[in-house]
Design goal:
With 240 residues, the chain is mainly α. It is built from ten helices and no strands. The protein has helices at 12-15, 25-41, 45-58, 66-81, 85-102, 105-121, 125-138, 154-167, 171-188, 193-239. The longest helix has 47 residues, at 193-239. The radius of gyration is 25 Å and the shape is elongated. The termini are far apart.
């Protein structure tokens, strides 16, 4: 288990000391990373990146553990919010390599999720779908353990699969995935998951409404054309 192991943001070891008073490298790593997460949660991307850079500088490059996965995950997310999706993909792939090495399914699912959403933003919808499928399949069914950084949950995976299905014009499949995402979100009382799935439902219903309206218009045109044809045909025969 890495330095950031099962520590939570409310844990005294994480926030009990200010960074400047830390006496150990472990304390500084924990404190700087928690601070980076804090700023991300408050939408201050620049400050979050600054503190994450501090965390990176303190890590031992010769040690590979779950701490690296947390750092790659947060960095991928920060690149995502900054619109640097190719860099976000690169960080996610680093996380995948480490998660496989330490055999942590939750972190592996998390890394594939961030790979998928960055691929999505680059317009690689099929690749994004594949990555999100892997995230879904490797996600552990065991009760989640408390960690310093909350790893991605099922509602996030399924909701983003629904978004990929929308882009792939598979609306029925999108509805099914989003319905599952909504069920997971309600069950876990997800602060972000519930509104995200509700928004996706809105997108799906709008697409279905447009599709229904388009079908109605085409049917109306066809009926009008058919009616006009039956009126013209006798005249054409008579004139001949």
């Amino acid at each position: 288990m890495g330095l950031l192991g099962n520590c939570t943001i409310c844990s005294p070891i994480c926030v009990g000391k200010k960074f400047s008073t830390c006496q150990t490298s472990k304390c500084r790593i924990l404190n700087s990373f928690v601070t980076a997460e804090y700023y991300l949660d408050n939408d201050d991307i620049e400050s979050s990146q600054k503190w994450l850079n501090t965390t990176k500088d303190l890590l031992n490059p010769e040690v590979t553990d779950s701490t690296d996965c947390f750092v790659y995950s947060l960095q991928s997310e920060l690149f995502y919010y900054n619109g640097l999706f190719q860099f976000g993909k690169d960080e996610a792939r680093k996380g995948i390599m480490v998660a496989k090495k330490i055999k942590d399914k939750a972190l592996l699912a998390d890394a594939y999720f961030f790979l998928g959403i960055n691929q999505f933003e680059l317009g690689n919808y099929k690749e994004a779908e594949q990555s999100l499928w892997i995230s879904r399949d490797v996600f552990p069914n065991t009760k989640p353990t408390k960690r310093l950084r909350t790893v991605i949950q099922k509602e996030h995976i399924y909701n983003n699969l629904a978004q990929a299905k929308i882009k792939l014009q598979q609306v029925d499949s999108a509805f099914w995935y989003n319905k599952k995402a909504y069920e997971f979100a309600v069950k876990s009382n997800s602060r972000r998951g519930i509104p995200n799935t509700e928004q996706t439902f809105g997108e799906i219903y709008l697409i279905q409404k447009r599709k229904t309206a388009r079908q109605f218009t085409l049917t109306k045109v066809w009926l009008q054309h058919s009616k006009a044809s039956t009126m013209i045909l006798p005249c054409w025969i008579t004139d001949f």
